[in-house]
């Protein structure tokens, strides 16, 4: 979990993914669309990936474990949350607040 | 069982009875042989009775015809064995010694008829007729209840006849036979009783069978009808929480039902809007419609678990709707584009809100579309990879299995995409209602419904168009 938090606080927008996960691809695409450049951590290519995935699922309650989005170091949610937040404009605001994007 | 030719000697009444007593069983499974046998028997009987006819002065042939026909019908219909023919035995007994041959069409047993006593034979001939007819109808499974009733009646009539014949024979026979008669009579009576009881039991059983069969066909029909209507019958019999079994069919029907209810609610809304109803009333109806929308999303989710491809295929929609479908449903950004013009007047804030909503919706749709494309590509790669080696090598089989497993995993994510697409649709609608006033929401819902109704109507027209 610490590793997760560590990585999550390194950049304004951080997304934990798996290289084979297509929903992760969707979330990434959305962030790029918004002009953000999130840090992407592919857990299946990471040495501690399994551990982190477990931490995300069990300790953060993120189900499915990936994609897991952190904005400004705070856990935001998985794909479903991101879409919901995006539709009502909250996501954009969060990104602006965290200085991931400017407008 | 089988053919037994029994010739009755002059003084051997009892023996006749004993030997005739066992039931003679017809060749059950082959009614046709009986038919042919019958015809041959008929002719043979005619031969046998030729002499008798002359001496008896009546047409045995007639008697035989009647009984033969009835017996054939019975045997054909049931193929059942003729049971203990008590009467026959009794008849023979009462006839006493004689030399007439009678071949039975069932077992080719022959029984002698008395040649000498004219009166006896006359009454006996009546017995023969009733006897054979009665026995055949009794023991062949009665097709109708009346046959058994007739049987019973005939039974009693026969008993009367028999007793009469017995009495006649008693009076004219030697007294030494009287004791034997009594015993025989008792036995005959018991046999008759037993036979009658068994006939009644069989009748009851057959009735039961028939009614059960009727019930079964009725149930099957109901089930068929119900299945067609999409009430899906789960094997556990739990109907209220449907949606696990026949996902596609059940969903189609659920959707049809949902659409019906939706149209009804829209009509209610339209009436309220046209009659310039108050905001509270409108709000209630709008909330109802929105909640009803949530219903179909929930249903789709459940159906997607059972059969994601059915939902994605859009076969539950009309053709024109299907054409503009996106990941198992409508495109919210398109919908908003349609609405903007119809929702005038909008405040500045509202306009901005709607435009932003449209843009967000578009972006989310694009992201999801990209995800779907990535999925397709990944799946294609998975299935395409693998060296084309010699078939049958275990390495290739393992490869193949691995490939399939991976592909299966990827397919599983389809449901997730459908879910997120529906989520997007739901969120967009909710956000729209937040931006608009009650009245505007009402008009928006009506406009959405108009659009889709026209699409559906277009589909119908298209399907019904005259083709050259």
Automatic annotation (TrEMBL), chain A:
Coiled coil: none annotated. PROSITE patterns: GLUTAREDOXIN_2 (PS51354). Its main location: cytoplasm. GO terms for cellular component: cytoplasm. Keywords: Cytoplasm, Redox-active center. Residues 14-76 form the Glutaredoxin domain. It holds the Pfam family Glutaredoxin. It is found in: Cytoplasm. Belongs to the glutaredoxin family. CC-type subfamily. This is Glutaredoxin domain-containing protein. It comes from Morus notabilis.
């Amino acid at each position: 979990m610490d590793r997760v938090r560590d990585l999550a606080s390194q950049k304004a927008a951080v997304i934990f993914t798996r290289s084979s996960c297509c929903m992760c691809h969707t979330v990434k695409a959305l962030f790029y669309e918004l002009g953000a450049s999130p840090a992407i951590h592919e857990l299946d290519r990471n040495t501690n990936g399994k551990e982190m995935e477990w931490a995300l699922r069990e300790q953060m309650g993120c189900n499915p474990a990936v994609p897991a989005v952190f904005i400004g170091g705070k856990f935001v949610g998985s794909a479903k949350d991101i879409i919901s937040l995006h539709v009502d404009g909250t996501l954009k605001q969060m990104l602006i607040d965290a200085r991931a994007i400017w407008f | 069982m089988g053919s037994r030719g029994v010739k009755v000697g002059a003084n051997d009444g009892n023996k006749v009875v004993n030997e005739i007593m066992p039931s003679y069983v017809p060749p059950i499974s082959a009614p046709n042989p009986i038919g042919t046998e019958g015809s041959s028997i008929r002719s043979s009987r005619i031969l046998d009775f030729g002499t008798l006819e002359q001496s008896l002065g009546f047409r045995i042939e007639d008697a035989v015809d009647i009984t033969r026909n009835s017996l054939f019908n019975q045997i054909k219909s049931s193929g059942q064995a003729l049971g203990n023919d008590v009467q026959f035995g009794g008849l023979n007994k009462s006839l006493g010694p004689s030399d007439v041959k009678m071949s039975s069409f069932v077992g080719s047993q022959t029984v002698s008829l008395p040649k000498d006593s004219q009166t006896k034979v006359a009454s006996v001939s009546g017995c023969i007729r009733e006897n054979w007819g009665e026995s055949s109808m009794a023991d062949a499974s009665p097709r109708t209840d009346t046959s058994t009733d007739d049987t019973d009646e005939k039974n009693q009539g026969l008993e009367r006849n028999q007793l009469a014949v017995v009495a006649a024979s008693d009076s004219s026979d030697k007294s030494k036979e009287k004791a034997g008669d009594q015993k025989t009579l008792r036995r005959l009576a018991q046999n008759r009783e037993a036979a009658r009881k068994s006939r009644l039991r069989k009748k009851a059983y057959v009735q039961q069978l028939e009614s059960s069969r009727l019930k079964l066909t009725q149930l099957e029909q109901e089930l068929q009808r119900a299945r067609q209507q999409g009430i899906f019958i789960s094997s556990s019999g739990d109907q209220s929480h449907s949606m696990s079994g026949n996902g596609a069919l059940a969903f189609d029907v659920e959707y049809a039902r949902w659409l019906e209810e939706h149209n009804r609610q829209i009509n209610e809304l339209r009436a309220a809007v046209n009659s310039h109803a108050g905001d509270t009333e409108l709000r209630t109806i709008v909330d109802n419609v929105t909640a009803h929308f949530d219903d179909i999303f929930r249903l789709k989710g459940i159906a997607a678990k059972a059969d994601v491809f059915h939902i994605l295929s859009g076969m539950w929609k009309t053709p024109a709707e299907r054409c503009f479908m996106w990941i198992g449903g409508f495109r919210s950004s398109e919908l908003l584009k349609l609405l903007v013009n119809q929702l005038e007047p909008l405040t500045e804030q509202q306009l901005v809100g709607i435009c932003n909503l449209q843009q967000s919706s578009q972006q989310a749709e694009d992201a999801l579309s990209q995800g779907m494309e990535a999925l397709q590509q990944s799946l294609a790669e998975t299935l395409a990879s693998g060296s084309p080696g010699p078939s049958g090598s275990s390495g290739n089989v393992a490869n193949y299995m691995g490939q399939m497993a991976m592909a299966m995993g990827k397919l599983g994510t389809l449901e997730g995409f459908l879910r997120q697409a529906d989520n997007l649709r739901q969120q967009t609608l909710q956000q729209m209602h937040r931006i608009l006033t009650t009245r505007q929401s009402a008009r928006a819902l009506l406009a959405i419904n108009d659009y889709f109704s026209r699409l559906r109507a277009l589909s119908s027209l298209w399907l019904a168009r005259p083709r050259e």
